[in-house]
């Protein structure tokens, strides 16, 4: 059985910084690959490091798969030598790359559909992927506005719509204890009100005054369904948590802190939505199997699309 590695797949959206009528990120990548047909042509060098589109492939149900690799030509790899039993020390060695290749610095697998991007990377930062695509579009002499995009998290998606479509697995409220206590009377119906009640009880237990004191403590209130009860009770609990989550989103103040985890594993915070998931993919050296990574990315996008989370 192949060794499997846990990887994170995440969602981003290409946001255009100007009126880029008629453009999508997928179209730009397709146009660039049509112009730059060879891997060598689809290589961008920066600071002695080469980044390339190793392979681009159509997804049969729409969209485009990409495998982006990065290497440093001629760079040597550090090797840990085998030592005799009982050896007190050892010295690392270096090994040159094989005559027909280079050592892999990192790579990334992408599924791109219109302006939607699902990615899974190993040692290749998201910023480097965006830079590479922009430089690739320049090299392919695409429209000048083709580089005016950023890969953004899903901050503009309706949080209420997301929790209603996916359901809520867990709601976590956070606050500094002294602040929560101070705001208890002022904001009973809001996040700090719930935390203030907890804070008041903790302060009573610690025999501390209820006014604002810099205790340096944090209080967190976590709500989730109890699976030990029957299905009807669990369903009712889920509805209650979903309703409370919607209330938190609608009424929390600018200083409130919370995390809502949907049943699909997406994390919602006051400022943004972290749309990502953990998957197991067959390992292949320092990276993972390309085709299986692509399959996981498409499945991840399909789940998000079915829940309405990637609508524009």
Structure description:
- The chain has helices at residues 25-35, 126-139, 159-166, 177-182, 191-206, 231-251, 290-306, and strands at residues 4-16, 43-46, 49-58, 64-71, 77-79, 93-95, 104-113, 116-122, 149-152, 168-176, 218-224, 257-262, 267-268, 273-274, 276-284, 287-288.
- With 312 residues, the protein is α+β, with helices and mostly antiparallel strands.
- It has two domains: 4-73 and 92-154 and 277-306, no CATH class; 159-268, no CATH class.
Keywords, separated by commas or semicolons:
single chain, 312 residues, alpha+beta, 2 domains, nine-stranded antiparallel beta sheet, five-stranded antiparallel beta sheet
SSE map:
Blueprint: E1 4-16, H1 25-35, E2 43-46, E3 49-58, E4 64-71, E5 77-79, E6 93-95, E7 104-113, E8 116-122, H2 126-139, E9 149-152, H3 159-166, E10 168-176, H4 177-182, H5 191-206, E11 218-224, H6 231-251, E12 257-262, E13 267-268, E14 273-274, E15 276-284, E16 287-288, H7 290-306
Antiparallel strand pairs: 1-8, 1-9, 1-15, 2-3, 3-4, 4-7, 5-6, 7-8, 10-11, 10-12, 12-13, 13-14, 15-16
Helix pairs in contact: 3-6
